[in-house]
Amino acid sequence: MEVKQKALFDYLLWLGDNGLILGQRIAEWCGHGPYLEEDIALTNISLDLIGQARAFLSYAGELEGKGRDEDKLAFFRNDREFKNNLLVEEPNGDFGKTILRQYFFSVFAELLFEKLSASNDEKLAALAAKSLKEVKYHKVHSQKWLLRLGDGTPESHSRMQAALNEMWHLTGDLFENAESDNLLFSERIAFDLAETKPHWSKEVISDLLEASLQIPTNAFMLKGGRNGFHSEHLSHILTEMQALPRAIPEGKW
């Protein structure tokens, strides 16, 4: 692959890996939601995210030209080869933590796909535009729960504040560009993620304050997901997710 093509390949892996890992996390709620309607809502969000992952990874495989389709890229890479952000690999915890993780990511994803919908790469732009319609719903859904739980009972408020304290330091990783992204910026295929951070911060902080939650003052941000530096949580989720395809690589259903 030429250098620019490799940069786009890596970028597509990042987009696909985020959807794949977060979709897998949300899928763990299937059958365990707080009530039936919410169980179905979470399952649909999971399906949306995995559908997005399939589209981005499929495009990545086409660019690579080595015969790796979306399934090969999903099930036959190790944890250091995954480029997802650290936030999405966080365990579900309780319902409040799941909602807050989804909210953080959905606000980011909406800003991201709005920008990418104008990409000079026509296929990436089309995939982003389709994904944008879905993440808008994901944001509204998680935002409503954030406000309901944060400004709800003492118990729900306490759990949401605990989730915020636990995950806030993972949000900075969302805005880390890869070095190879500079090639995509010059071609207007992608854009500097730092451009979205002020908009994300303004919206998120406003909603957190409306939910009566206190913003953590610790400025430390854990980063490195796009460079393959992950928590042990990713290894665990990949072990479960990849076990069957690796055990029966030529299996057909």
CATH class: Mainly Alpha
Q: Write down the overall geometry.
A: globular
CATH architectural grouping:
Up-down Bundle
| End-to-end Cα distance | 33 Å
Rounded mean pLDDT score: 96
- CATH structural fold name: Ferritin
- Rg over C-alpha atoms, rounded to the nearest angstrom: 18 Å
Write out the CATH superfamily name.
Ferritin, core subunit, four-helix bundle
Number of strands: 0
> Oligomer, anyone?
single chain
| Total helical elements | 9
The domain tally reads 1
Write up what this structure looks like.
By secondary structure, the protein is mainly alpha-helical. Helix 2 packs antiparallel against helix 5 (122-150). The two termini are 33 Å apart. The protein contains nine helices and no strands. The longest helix is centred in the first third of the chain and has 29 residues, at 36-64. It has one domain: Ferritin. It is globular, with a radius of gyration of 18 Å. It has helices at 3-27, 36-64, 70-75, 95-116, 122-150, 154-167, 181-186, 197-210, 232-247.
Reconstruct the topology from this structure.
Blueprint: H1 3-27, H2 36-64, H3 70-75, H4 95-116, H5 122-150, H6 154-167, H7 181-186, H8 197-210, H9 232-247
Helix pairs in contact: 1-2, 2-5, 4-5, 4-6, 4-8
